[in-house]
Design goal:
Elements lengths: L1 H19 L7 H14 L14 E5 L3 H17 L4 E5 L5 H11 L5 E5 H9 L20 H6 L1 E2 L2 E2 L2 E6 L1 E6 H6 L9 H13 L5 E4 L3 H10 L6 H6 L6 H14 L3 E4 L16 E5 H9 L11 E5 L4 E7 L6 H11 L2 H11 L2 E2 L2 H15 L14 H13 L1 H9 L4 H12 L2
Parallel strand pairs: 1-2, 1-3, 8-9, 8-10
Antiparallel strand pairs: 3-12, 4-5, 6-12, 6-13, 7-10, 7-11
Length: about 425
């Protein structure tokens, strides 16, 4: 009798557990193994039945034309990854203020497209989610190492590099040949030959956009031995006094032949609207203007290009307050895939942050213009600290850079004012 009661009690207990646990799967490990195989076959995707999450809130800052292209690709990726997204485009002039305010209120959404030099700033404030523990940890390793390094801090990766737009220096090939040069100048003597040719033609030598302080900075960094603010500061710690003096003399010689334009200089095959034989612009502007030339021609035969440093780079980050980190990771993975990055380059002419795609795109540019254009967007001597420092210096010393280019101060005063700002 006692044994019968035990059997009944056991049966009641088992029935109760079954009722209270409706998700209990009696099919055992075989069914779970089949489900795991299905997920492994299609990584990064979910069925629509599984997708009950809230929409991802994605914030960017772009021109209307660029945002139209971004929106189309973003929705394409969202559909393929079964993610719903809400896109918002903030005016560039308001972007930093909007981000700071929303971060302080905890209303910053899920995914943000940041300038690379902003990533560490927001990471240190605790506003971002490290990506090391997400499914992005593998694809991050496929990005350009120099861009990836800028988004690293405290041993963690805080963003997935998305794209970058390097600067280039252009020159009319005929002008270069008249000066007796077959390549871009790399020393004071060769720059002096270009200045002499400009004197002979009664023209200024080079055009720079007045509002584009980064363009001015990368051009100054190109002048030997390096005359950008960060290079001037670094020269204090090494015995390069003689080299720096030569740089000051070269910049002094160039000052009367610099023209600052209201807009960023850009040329095309049908419209060379720059009044000087040399100019500095972004690669995307150059390619876009060239391809939209009315006669369908290209400027490859008349213009030579020289790569300058890459300072305009962007990264996708996940906010620390996001409740949709898995969906955010899947969407970012799609936006930084090889296929989408290639489409983005075709539409915007901004180079991919993926190393393999960037190499291919740089090779296409080199072949297009039949020039000695190597993908040297980053200096071999660069390290993450120098890259981050170089991107903040132009803003810090904006006044001094503009004054020396406009001839309001001498080259020597420019160097001294930068040094005195650090060591008064």
């Amino acid at each position: 009798m006692k044994r019968r009661h035990q059997v009944v009690l056991f049966a009641v207990l088992l029935l109760s557990l079954t009722i209270l646990s409706p998700s209990f799967d009696f099919r055992g490990s075989q069914h779970n193994q089949e489900r795991n195989q299905e997920n492994d076959t299609y990584p990064g995707t979910l069925s629509r039945a599984d997708d009950t999450r809230a929409p991802l809130n994605v914030t960017v800052s772009m021109s209307k034309e660029e945002f139209a292209a971004f929106e189309k690709l973003a929705e394409e990726v969202a559909a393929s990854r079964y993610v719903e997204i809400n896109l918002r485009n903030v005016e560039p002039g308001e972007y930093n203020d909007v981000l700071d305010q929303e971060f302080s209120l905890g209303e910053n959404g899920d995914v943000i497209l940041l300038e690379n030099d902003q990533v560490q700033l927001y990471a240190k404030k605790g506003y971002l989610l490290p990506l090391n523990g997400t499914q992005l940890s593998k694809s991050i390793g496929e990005t350009v190492a120099e861009l990836r390094a800028i988004t690293e801090w405290n041993g963690y990766q805080w963003g997935q590099p998305f794209d970058f737009d390097p600067y280039v220096m252009g020159v009319r090939t005929s002008f270069l040949n008249k000066a007796g040069l077959h390549m871009f100048p790399n020393n004071k003597e060769q720059w002096s030959k270009l200045i002499q040719e400009a004197q002979a033609e009664d023209t200024a030598l080079i055009s720079l956009g007045m509002g584009d302080i980064e363009a001015a900075n990368v051009w100054l960094s190109y002048l030997p031995p390096g005359m950008s603010p960060d290079q001037v500061l670094r020269s204090q710690s090494v015995s390069t006094a003689g080299e720096l003096q030569r740089g000051i003399r070269l910049l002094s010689e160039l000052q009367p032949y610099i023209t600052l334009t209201a807009d960023v200089p850009v040329v095309s095959a049908s419209n060379y609207n720059v009044k000087t034989p040399m100019f500095v612009t972004t690669l995307s502007r150059m390619l876009d203007e060239d391809e939209s030339a009315q006669d369908g021609a290209t400027i490859r035969a008349s213009i030579s290009l020289e790569p300058l440093q890459a300072v305009k780079s962007r990264t996708l980050v996940i906010t620390a307050g996001s409740a949709e980190t898995d969906a955010a990771s899947r969407w970012i993975e799609g936006m930084t895939s090889a296929a989408i990055q290639t489409k983005w380059y075709v539409q915007t002419k901004r180079l991919s942050a993926r190393q393999q795609e960037q190499n291919q795109q740089a090779s296409q540019v080199q072949a297009r213009y039949d020039a000695q254009l190597e993908p040297l967007w980053f200096s071999k001597e660069d390290n993450p600290l120098q890259l981050a420092e170089r991107q903040t210096m132009p803003v810090r010393f904006r006044k001094q850079v503009r004054q020396v280019l406009q001839g309001e101060i001498s080259a020597a005063q420019y160097v001294n004012s930068i040094r005195n700002a650090i060591n008064p």
